Amino acid sequence: MTATHTAPYGFPHNLFALLRRAGNLMAKGMLAVAIIFMAGMIAVATAVAGLALAAFAIILRLSGSRDDAPQTRYEETADNGTITLEAKKTPRGWTVE
To answer: In degrees rounded to 5, what are phi and psi of residue 83?
Structure first.
């Protein structure tokens, strides 16, 4: 009785090894593409959030009240009579005139 023994590195083994390597390479490629895609999405989301913050800051800056700040009168008594001082609010603080 004669039996033939297939070589361990014959045709089916080489084909399966090739398919396994191709599968591993495709999985690594898909992971790399997914990482790059997520990094791009994070960059876009950060840019949108920055633009929204800038727009909100501009809206707040432009929507400030246009009327004059209420003037407050302070009276001070001097030797020769009464002096009235007027104070109004400026961007740098209160100014007394």
So the answer is: -110, 130
